């Protein structure tokens, strides 16, 4: 059995955490959809549960199982940042 390796990446919350402790995210660089369903610590799960859709978060993830698109969050690298698609407004 091979060792699981955590990979650092930035993901965007697409569906916030549900009643089954699963959330859907999109990998920022590749547009892959991933389902986060395991968390290294209860505090990490609690922090992620509070995030709304559209929040970008830098995390370390490792795959759960060999044939699924389910991931374990190993670490949150720093505070999540909300992102917006609106251009910055300038004052006249």
Automatic annotation (TrEMBL):
<dbReference type="Pfam" id="PF26006">
    <property type="entry name" value="DUF7999"/>
</dbReference>
<dbReference type="InterPro" id="IPR058312">
    <property type="entry name" value="DUF7999"/>
</dbReference>
<feature type="domain" description="DUF7999">
    <location>
        <begin position="3"/>
        <end position="80"/>
    </location>
</feature>
<protein>
    <recommendedName>
        <fullName>DUF7999 domain-containing protein</fullName>
    </recommendedName>
</protein>
């Amino acid at each position: 059995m091979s060792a699981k390796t955590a990979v650092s990446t930035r993901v965007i919350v697409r569906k916030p955490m549900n009643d089954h402790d699963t959330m859907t995210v999109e990998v920022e660089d590749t547009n892959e959809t991933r389902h986060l369903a395991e968390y290294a610590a209860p505090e990490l799960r609690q922090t992620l549960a509070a995030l709304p859709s559209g929040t970008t978060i830098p995390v370390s993830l490792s795959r759960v199982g060999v044939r699924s698109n389910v991931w374990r969050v190993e670490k949150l690298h720093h505070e999540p940042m909300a992102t917006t698609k609106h251009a910055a407004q300038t004052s006249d």
